[in-house]
Design a protein that fits this description.
The chain is mostly helical. Helix content is 79%, strand content 0%. The longest helix is centred in the C-terminal third of the chain and has 43 residues. It starts with a helix and ends in an 8-residue tail after the last helix.
Length: 168
């Protein structure tokens, strides 16, 4: 009888597709259609980055969850979602969506063979917390950039008005 890891490895492609589809459903219909249908990574860097990030995360969930690689995969997805019009909970919800995909995809094995996803659920909770931290760091960086831009704009306006005031 195959164990949980074996089943998750065998079903990787189907699980990734469903997980990716759930993320796409968080976008407006036209955007989701573009992200789903455009296969050229140069024409669709957002869709490509998200999918590759999910693929890497899935591999790490099945493996030892190397902290550096997990952070890199999460960062690539969260950076995109942090600059889009998502609330913090919406930006990191994709982590919890994997739990629902796994339960749908493995419903038969869970019921027939008593397959347990407890260990995976604990890993997903760890990922969600890390994703939230990354999201907040990205948002802080965005605000710092905005503040700096406002300072620069104000300085230029003051210079044009021949006022020599240095802003902190």
């Amino acid at each position: 009888m195959p164990d949980t890891h074996e089943i998750l490895t065998q079903r990787k492609s189907a699980i990734l597709q469903k997980w990716y589809q759930r993320i796409l459903n968080s976008y407006p219909a036209e955007t989701a259609r573009f992200l789903r249908e455009e296969q050229d990574p140069f024409a669709n860097p957002v869709g490509t980055t998200i999918y590759h990030g999910l693929e890497g995360l899935y591999e790490e969930i099945l493996a030892k969850m190397d902290a550096g690689r997990v952070r890199d995969y999460l960062d690539s997805i969260i950076r995109i979602r942090a600059v889009q019009d998502f609330s913090p909970s919406q930006a990191v919800a994709f982590i919890f969506q994997l739990k629902h995909v796994l339960k749908e995809e493995l419903a038969g094995e869970i019921q027939e063979k008593g397959l347990s996803l407890e260990g995976l659920e604990a890993r997903l909770e760890e990922l969600a917390l890390l994703a939230f931290d990354i999201y907040m760091q990205c948002r802080e960086q965005l605000w710092e950039i905005k503040v700096e831009e406002i300072k620069n704009r104000t300085t230029r306006l003051l210079q044009r008005a021949n006022l020599n005031i240095n802003l902190p």
